[in-house]
Input
Amino acid sequence: MADPQAVEAPDDPRVADYVGLTDGARRMKHEPGAGFFIAEGEKVIARTAAAGYPPRSLLVSPARLADLMPAVEALDCPVYVASYDVLQAVTGFHVHRGALASFGRLPLRSAADVLAQARRVVVMEAVTNHTNLGAVFRSAAALGMDAVLLSPNSCDPLYRRTVRVSMGQVFSVPYAYLERWPEGIDEVRAAGFRVLALTPDAGATDLGELEVGPDQRIALVFGAEGPGLTEEVMAASDERVRIPMSGGVDSLNVGSAAAVAFWVLGRRPDLAAPGTVGIMSADVITPSS
Output
């Protein structure tokens, strides 16, 4: 690791990657176009580096530098050290973790490549809430899903908040964008997957009672918080499934619903073969937050 360099002014051009991190709309356009993303916190930075993303720079507080050293000492990039006041002035928020890193992006995988290597897949339509998407990736990694596919209007999995909420699991679960939508559902089906749309509709099949063959590839498609899946995607799915609700609750937050669905299917003997992957298409309709 390079010797630390002090940054004493928020307009220092060396830390341009970190300016205005709270401006989500700007960052969503700027970062992918410029070919980088931001990781926050010691564990996430370490996982990002371990996943093979090329480091551009580190920006840390003096108090966090020693703790961060074991995770980043092998990184070949500039290390900038700044006070918490300067960090806040640069980023727009109080960086209480005291550690940020800028990494270069790797080429995106194609949906066909991801589908070819999976048996359990999550499909997300128009999920623009970064926290929800991060939660889905973390649950997918923990509960045996093999890949995540995104509609073109879903948010960036490498956005700082998504990476942080996922605890870096966006790097362990393969993902790709379905470039055509909703025609991408047909691409999933053509790859050999049974597409299941999760919905709170009482007439849908109870997820726990779903009949699935031992060699069947399954896909769950989830919609955005509030509107859920569009009618076009619901119609393109093979079947609608639901998580039974009680207590007058009509549905779950999309991140919670995904975790429940992954866990239920993971417990199924016919779907739980070690080392395999599967796809599920689930349409989750939830109230606006």
Summary: The chain has two domains: 5-104, 111-266. The radius of gyration is 20 Å. The longest strand covers residues 55-60.
